[in-house]
């Protein structure tokens, strides 16, 4: 089954805004997939529905073959989500942030400690594991968001504009972490409005505008069109 399968997804918000007007897409296991589009295109809405933060109006969504309406909990266990805003406690240490997050999802503490070392090393944060998060640089905080999402060993990692408003050095550090996670087998979907970011990271992409997919395909063939 695809890592993500979306069919004729529609979302009309209570204020009447049609944020998604019938979106269909498949993301294959192992892919690094970008949803590219301008502000207001519907990217966050799409990701919000897939990660169960937003209710859809109609359509179908399944994650590795599990329909989110049929078994939402099972589908959500397969997903790791990196929200746009940094939302961990600045007065906790990265190690505790990761271990407590896994604990919330029922991972035993001993196992969580082992996993935390892996994800923090992967995000080049192991030497900061015991520092107050407040003292981390902007880039380190962003990478900690990614590391924390990886604690539950998701098969699909979803990031909503992970690099919005961050400078190029920080973005490159995040790209390296994401490439390694993808190389180790995790499917990644991210939204971005930077073509450059999609180009650097992704094998496949969809371009979304005004709630519709206007182009899709392998990065290389779309670049050839531009
Ligand atoms: P396009 O729809 O862009 O013309 P294709 O027909 O090749 O291109 O389909 C591309 C994508 O359409 C597929 O990879 C998948 O994401 C989506 N798709 C596949 N089957 C369906 C379907 N039954 N209904 C809607 N979308 C589909
Ligand atoms: P993007 O992530 O591509 O910037 P969004 O999914 O955030 O796009 O927004 C798509 C459209 O839906 C926009 O017109 C936006 O103003 C509207 N929208 C987003 N969230 C809400 C909401 N909670 N209530 C009403 N309208 C919303």
UniProtKB/TrEMBL annotation:
Domain ABC transporter, first and last residues per copy: 4-226
Q: Which domain of life is it from?
A: Bacteria
Q: Which UniProt keywords apply?
A: ATP-binding, Nucleotide-binding, Transport
- Give the protein name, as stated in the record: ABC transporter ATP-binding protein
Record bears the keyword ATP-binding: yes
Instruction: Supply the source organism for this entry.
Output: Pseudoluteimonas lycopersici
Q: Name one GO molecular function term.
A: ATP hydrolysis activity
Which residues of the intact protein are shown? 6 to 231 of 318
